[in-house]
Amino acid sequence: MRILTYLLSVIALGIIGFNLTRVNFSDPFANESYTAIVTALAGGCSILLLTILRIVKKIDKTVKEKS
Asked: Are the C-beta atoms of 36 and 20 separated by less than 8 Å?
């Protein structure tokens, strides 16, 4: 599970990097730029969720070991 979350995080980082190259910074709210910004933010949210999942799994493992 841990390897899968790290793999998905790396894929999300790739998506963020790719979409940030597609943003037209002179007009960031144009059609393609807006889509790239939204997709980059979605990638950031997925990294945040995967990090939370890893932390929860680590806490769960610690609690089970102490019981």
From this structure: yes
The residue among 12, 2, 67, 5 whose CA lies nearest residue 42 is: 12
C-alpha distances in angstroms, 54 versus 1, 23, 35, 41, 44?
9, 31, 29, 20, 15
Express each pLDDT in 13-31 by its tens digit: 999 999 999 999 898 888 8
Range of the structural domain that residue 18 is part of = 2-66
pTM: 0.86
Nearest to 34 by CA among 21, 24, 44, 43: 24
